[in-house]
Amino acid sequence: MSGLKDAGHLFRFAGLFVLAFLVFLVVRSYVVPKSFGEYGHYRGAAIGEIASRPVKFAGHQTCETCHTDIADTKTKGAHAHVNCEACHGALAAHADDPMTVTPVKPDTAVLCARCHTTSAAKPVGFPQVDPADHSGGVPCETCHNPHSPVIGSDSSASAGSNSSAGSSSNAKAAKVGAK
Amino acid sequence: MSGVEGYIYPNEVTLYWSVLIVLYPFITGLVAGAFILASLERVFRVEAVKPTYRLALLTALAFLLVAPLPLVLHLGHPFRSPEMYFTPHDTSAMAMFGYVYLWYLMAVLVFEIWLDYRREIVLLSQTSKGLLRLIYKVMTLGSSNISERALHIDDKVGWIVTLVGIPSAFLLHGYVGFIFGSIKANPWWSSPLMPVVFIFSAMVSGIAAVMLLYMATTKLRGQKIDMCCVDAIAMYMFYIFIIDFSLEMLDLVHRVYEADESFRSLNFMVHTKLYFSQIVVQICLGTIVPLVLLFLTQVAKLEEMARKRIYILSGSLALIGVLAMRWNVVIGGQLFSKSFLGYTTYKMELVTREGLLVAVGLTILPLLFLWALVKLLPPWPDKSLHEAATGD
Amino acid sequence: MKISRRHLMILLPAAAVAWKHVLAGTPEDSPNYQMSEHWWGMLIDIPKCIGCGNCVRACQTENDVPDGFFRTWVERYHRTDWHLENPEVISPDGGKEGFPVVQAGEEGKFFFVPKMCNHCADSPCTQVCPVGATFVTPDGVVLIDQKYCLGCAYCVQACPYGCRYIHPTKKVADKCTLCYHRITKGLTTACCEACPTGARQLADLKNPNDPIHEFLKTHTVQVLKPQMATGAKAFYNGLDGSVR
């Protein structure tokens, strides 16, 4: 039909589209990652990649494998549920290589205040003190064993070389709640 | 923290969608609006606007070619953007962009322009020299058939393309409105009205742009402006502007009346941080003033000079108003916190990839493209071509 | 620390073997973890939170979170009796170094609210990703494939909780991963590990022995912005109505 002859240019234009589409399909088969669509509309391999990231906090179970005596002390005291790295920081590197990577002992004068400084915003019943009134700047471990902090609760074990045994006369109530 | 008032979620300090994301809906809006103007003649047979038909198509193409640039420049990884073509996520409105853009560019705009210009392209491929000759030859796709029958087929097919092009233009710009309107997390954006408001304001901006370009290029060529044409364009712009204004007022009234949990925060934002860009620029200068001016031209018999000046003024203000609307939507939507308790500030950069200079450049670039397109495919009847066609 | 040399000789090899298993990263080396057996969430117990900021610091350490951005943060609310919808909220540097002291005698109620990605089951952020760079895993964790992400920030806009951000140097989306690299190895998240009061606890809803089941039976819990219907899996005990 003569109509088709005069529409030849339209077929050429359409042909461009078909060609482009075919090229697109070929390129796509090379470019789209193989694991795409494995579990959903995403690259399935990403899950494994994310799961393989390095761990910085060892987790208290790992600490307790070696530090059994500390663990024993802690489970009997008020800090039973305070995990080791909550105070000691991330120590997976130490767990990985205990002899070479030695953690720095935290400074109790700074560390304990973070949680235990009195503030009316904190829950009532949570042990809080005003550090200046309570100890006048003396490091907390002078009187309190950080691993079992209630004075008198564990007088036999000691956390460090400079903790003194027994209760001191400075025993203002450990629980100073908000009014 | 500088620029932060009240309480905002800590990750909300930085705005992630910058002035480039303001530009993108503005540009695609111009494309859609210019195309609608072209379709007025082609499909709805409004003869009066015929002088602007080809110019409108070329304007749409010039802006469409620039449209992906602000998006790509804004991405953290621009070279990964082909992923939108290879693995588009079917639940994401943004994923539609790649395909809707390609469809509109190739199957609508380029196709229609090619069909309308084919005769000139074939003639120019025979009469021009050097590199231009090669370009024209490529554009003929190897076919030099410009018989009456072939041109008649072109005309019929072109009509269908324009017909399909109208909903395609709405889709091209409407999906941008849906990108914002479908985000339930953001009450400034989330609204079923959003795509509709975007489309109507796009039509206003596109029509204003073509009208201004027509007047400017006609003057530059030393020709007389066809006032019947411009009067008709202004009339359509006026009526579409009224619809746009009504929709925006409906959104406003609805918000004020329902006063949901976001209202207090948004209201405060409009009266402080967005006061200048929304109340002064978008509403007063960009909508009410041009509406009043255009209303005057519709009800009073004004002489030609006055009408020309009003059209130029109201067209320019309308364009500024629509750009301000995009700014208020995009930037405004990120200035308030989703806690409804605070605000941050947009610190627009100057010379970086997403800065003001790039934005200005991207606004000027389409005009350069248009200049090149007008040179390549003159929208105006060229006497020498007629001689070449009939004389040869 | 008083560990005898003999002690060490016995303990070290055992610890080393246990640790190597913990460090095993690739799925092939951890054959014990099956995604289909888990459905992760988090329990946040508001009355227990003391605003110490341990969790924020631990998360930053564990996940190399850039300064100024937060995968988790803590907010402090001050709700007075008349202004349930308009509380005073602060989060100085995300609560990383704790909060300023409040003197006794202030009227109204103060409390702390840790915030994080809620790992929504019907997450609006994964819905809008144009390329499939963020997704919900079969075990219920919302993750970001940072090798595929374009950095378009659409997901950041779509999250109702403000938990996402664009990483300033990687230029891709980033957020809490529920320490996926830890929970798939039997560890808990960094924030839960560091929390001294047990205010944050990882929960595996598919594990019949997980304490969350008992907790959900005996307490009143809420999720943030329930009207968004995101299927959030961070469950809050004692969440006040003023929390935004």
Features:
heterotrimer; A: 179 residues; 0% strand; disordered C terminus; C: 244 residues; alpha+beta; three-stranded antiparallel sheet; 23% helix; 19% strand
Topology of this protein?
The complex is a heterotrimer of chains A (179), B (392) and C (244).
Chain A: H1 2-6, H2 8-31, H3 45-51, H4 60-66, H5 68-75, H6 84-88, H7 92-96, H8 108-116, H9 131-135
Helix pairs in contact in A: 4-5
Chain B: E1 5-6, H1 19-42, H2 53-66, H3 68-74, H4 83-86, H5 96-127, H6 130-139, H7 148-181, H8 193-220, H9 227-258, H10 263-271, H11 275-299, H12 304-330, H13 332-335, E2 342-343, H14 356-376, H15 383-391
Antiparallel strand pairs in B: 1-2
Chain C: H1 5-23, E1 40-45, H2 54-63, E2 72-79, E3 88-90, E4 109-116, H3 124-128, E5 134-136, E6 142-144, H4 154-158, E7 165-166, E8 173-174, H5 180-183, H6 190-194, E9 200-204, H7 212-218, E10 221-222, E11 234-237
Parallel strand pairs in C: 1-11
Antiparallel strand pairs in C: 1-9, 2-3, 2-4, 5-6, 7-8, 10-11
